[in-house]
Amino acid sequence: MIRFSKKHQKRAILIIALLLALSSAVGLTLYALNQNINLFFTPSDLVHQKAPMGQTIRMGGLVVEGSVKRGAHDLSVSFILTDTKNQVTVDYTGILPDLFRENQGIVVLGTWQNNRFLAQEVLAKHDENYMPAEVIEAIKRSDHYENKP
Prior knowledge:
The chain has 2 domains: 1-36; 39-141, CATH 2.40.50.140. It is built from 3 helices and 7 strands. It has helices at 6-36, 43-47, 133-141; strands at 39-41, 56-63, 69-70, 76-82, 87-93, 105-113, 116-123. It has a 5-stranded mixed beta barrel. Strand 3 (69-70) and strand 4 (76-82) form a beta hairpin. It starts with 5 loop residues before the first helix and ends in an 8-residue tail after the last helix.
C-alpha cells in the first residue's frame, strides 16, 4: 500500500477541491448561457416542426400584405409571417415598432405553441431598402428570392 506524506495529502485535497470548484463554475456558466440562447428559425422550420415547442426562439420573415389584424380594445395584434414558402401566424400584445409594416422583413422573439407564434418582442429596425440578414438568408433558402437593387 502506498502511503502519502501529509504534505502530499493536503496538496491532493487542494487540487481536488479546485477541480470541483472549477467544474461547478463551468457547469453553472453553461447552464446560464443555454437558458439565454435564442435560436433563429424560419416559418418553414416551424411548419415542419424543426423548432422546439415552448422554448424562446427567434423567427424571421416577411409580413404578409393584408394579414395585420389589430385588437379592438387592447394592444393585441395578429399578423402572418412568410419565408415565401410557408406562413406562420404571429400573436403579439404591445406597441409595434414605428417601422413595422406589411411586405417588410422583421424578426420576432417568442415561443412556438399550438401552431401559433406567441411573440414577446417584434424587431423591425430597417428602412425600405434594408432587410435583416437572417431574413434574407431564410428567403434565399426558400428558392423564391428576388435580388432587389
